[in-house]
Design brief:
This protein is of the alpha/beta class and about 290 residues long. Helices cover about 45% and strands about 20% of the residues. The chain has two domains: about 5-35 and about 75-210 and about 265-290, von Willebrand factor, type A domain (Rossmann fold); about 40-75, no CATH class. It contains nine helices and ten strands. It has a six-stranded mixed β-sheet, with helices on both faces. The protein is elongated and about 90 Å long. The mean pLDDT is about 85.
Length: about 290
């Protein structure tokens, strides 16, 4: 039995994202994430406007009536959400936690994917692989994915991107579109992310809380690193502390961008206190402008 509060969140996400897919994202998704070329569908009678290069001369000769070959786009892409469920991903200083925003974005992308006959899977990770849901089609499968994201209870607390990339490369053999939801605060993953991006089409999705960008001035506080358990006391209202905090956040962002740009990996920056629609629309339009397809 699904708890009432979790059921309400799933229902809200289903309704909200379904409307967005209908109005905005289904076409954007289809135009950017194309299939692997075209495949033969059928032979039918030629009609004015058909490409004469597609005329099937054998059938035309047998029937005495011009016939043409019809081709369709070969889709059936595999889309995988690689989701960091370490302790930091459940932080939230505003009305929504990062996990809730990630669930909404995944639902939106997954609904667009299944509308285009693609399969969707999920790999949850911390400092280990926590769970893998194999790629499948269908609305029921998408809602299961949303439920898992909202209610998942990981065993680990820290982040190991290398473990996630190794598992992805072992489990998913065919080329996939992989959305990596993480803060990317992990050591020594530069080499493996490059290898993985050559095999799959990686898209980094950084979901940040406002409190991770600019620390609120709340006076003396004892804070705990949710991944390491380390505790320290800080003066959160101090100008020096807040300046150093913001500079450190900006440095991390610049380093991530340099890495992503160096391997030509697309990325999307999302804030939990701001609408995520515009960053997603920008991502689709920029990717289409570059002509970067699967």
């Amino acid at each position: 039995m699904i708890p009432k509060d979790l059921f309400a969140k799933i229902k809200y996400i289903d309704i909200t994202t379904s409307r967005l897919v209908e109005s905005v994202f289904a076409g954007e998704y289809h135009s950017v994430f194309k299939g692997k070329g075209i495949e033969f569908d059928e032979v039918r009678e030629y009609v004015p406007g058909d490409d004469i290069r597609d005329i099937d001369w054998n059938v035309t000769a047998k029937t005495g009536v011009p016939h043409t070959k019809r081709f369709i786009e070969a889709r059936e892409l595999t889309v995988v959400f690689l989701i960091d469920v370490s302790a930091s991903e459940y932080f939230g200083s505003k009305s929504k936690s990062k996990a809730e925003v990630i669930a909404e974005i995944c639902a939106l992308l997954a609904l667009a994917a299944i509308r285009n006959h693609d399969r969707v899977g999920v790999l949850f990770f911390t400092d280990r692989v926590e769970k893998f849901i194999p790629p499948r089609k269908g609305k029921r499968h998408v809602l299961r994915v949303v439920r898992e994201i909202l209610g998942f209870k990981p065993a680990g607390k820290r982040t190991d991107l290398n473990a996630a990339f190794r598992a992805l490369n072992d489990i998913v053999s065919r080329r996939a579109v992989v959305f990596v939801f993480s803060d990317f605060l992990a050591p020594n993953y530069d080499k493996l992310i490059k290898i993985t991006h050559r095999k799959h089409d990686l898209v980094g999705v950084l979901v940040e809380d406002a409190g991770e960008v600019a620390f609120p001035g709340l006076g003396l506080l004892e804070i705990e690193d949710v991944e390491t358990g380390q505790r320290i006391t800080i003066n959160s209202s101090g100008r020096r502390f807040r300046k150093k905090f913001s500079e450190a956040a900006e440095t991390r962002r610049a380093e991530r961008k340099r890495l992503f740009d160096s391997i030509k990996m697309d990325h999307i920056d999302i804030r939990t206190d701001q609408p995520y629609i515009q960053p997603l629309v920008r991502f689709f339009k920029e990717r289409a402008r570059k002509g970067r397809f699967v």
